[in-house]
Amino acid sequence: SYFGEQTLEKNYNTPREQAIYPSLAGKRVVVTGGGSGIGAGIVEAFARQGALVTFLDIAEKDSRALAASLAALPAPPAFVPCDLTDLPKVAQTFEIIGPVDILINNAGLQQDAPFQEMSLQQWERVISVNLTGQFLCAREAAREFLRRGVVPEVSRAAGKIICMSSVHEVIPWAGHVNYAASKGGIMQLMKSMAQELAPQKIRVNSIAPGAIQTPINRAAWGTPEALAALLKLIPDGRIGEPDDIARAAVWLASDQSDYITGATIFVDGGMTLYPGFATGG
Ligand code: BGC
After folding, report:
1. Is the CB of residue 263 less than 8 Å from the CB of residue 205?
2. What residues contact 153, with CB distance under 8 A and at least 6 apart?
3. ∠ CA(197), CA(143), CA(192), 5° rounding?
4. Which has the closest alpha carbon to 68: 35, 27, 46, 98?
5. What pLDDT does residue 18 have?
6. pTM, full prediction
7. Which residues are catalytic?
8. Residue-wise DSSP of 92-151
9. Residue 98 Ramachandran class (φ > 0 left, ψ -120 to 50 alpha, else beta)
């Protein structure tokens, strides 16, 4: 094979490769919304890679439980309570955390309603957490990356930002216009940041998960009927797990993906492949 006698797996993380692409060990990572769901999977995956993870969340109970469950790791993650809609608090939190190498802009929520019944409050809450929250955290991280520049022993990049988007950055979503609008906004926030910051060696990318089994979409998988309906939208035939997203995030945050910027990686089991057309059209 192309890799001779060695398998791909054996080739991965050899000392030679480690010299070219430093691992995530010791990298300072901030994960927003890290207390549950996809965020918690990312916190765990990065901590297991030896990254120094600080995660932010408003849900203190879940977050403290997660931190306690990972406390025995050599590099246990740290939890800092933070409401991303509180600008002074966001700035203060990043100041307390100190230098950052990687930001995982993950925090997000849904407040669903039929369009004609959606309140301004529901609209604003989703936009301010999902979109403005990502802007504020990315701005803090970018300021730090620009101050510091590239440190070759750490990474080829001055810093990396990963935005958690959704298949709903491209799939319209009736009954969820606030959420779909926030994710469509993230697509252009991410691409425009990527374009603006690439000359300074800051990489900005998105991951767009499909249906991942977490509390945010319990209604979509909580009963056998709901799950059966959901699976019709997923060509791969299974609901995703937080670790499906976390593994993509680890790769996208590492120098393995150094030449990728401004990209959205869909991790969705094919949900964006118009599954309704598989048998007709
Ligand atoms: C939403 C989930 C939904 C999934 C696929 C995600 O962005 O948060 O509720 O199951 O998209 O539709």
Report:
1. yes
2. 22
3. 30
4. 35
5. 67
6. 0.94
7. 179
8. HHHHHH---SEEEE---------GGG--HHHHHHHHIIIIIHHHHHHHHHHHHHHHH---
9. left
Distance, CA of 184 to CA of 127 (rounded, Å): 11
Q: Is the CB of 217 under 6 A from ligand 1?
A: yes
Residue 268 CA, ligand 1 centroid: distance in Å: 10
- SS3 assignment, position 248: helix
Token pair for residue 235? 């060509």
Residues whose CB falls within 8 Å of the CB of residue 96, separated by 6 or more in sequence, listed in order? 80
Q: What is the pLDDT of residues 122-159, one digit of tens each?
A: 999 999 999 999 999 999 999 999 999 999 999 999 99
Which one-letter DSSP state was computed for residue 255? G
Cα(194) to ligand 1 centroid in Å equals: 25
Cα separation, 40 vs 79, in Å, equals 11
Q: Whose CA is nearest to atom 9 of ligand 1?
A: 217
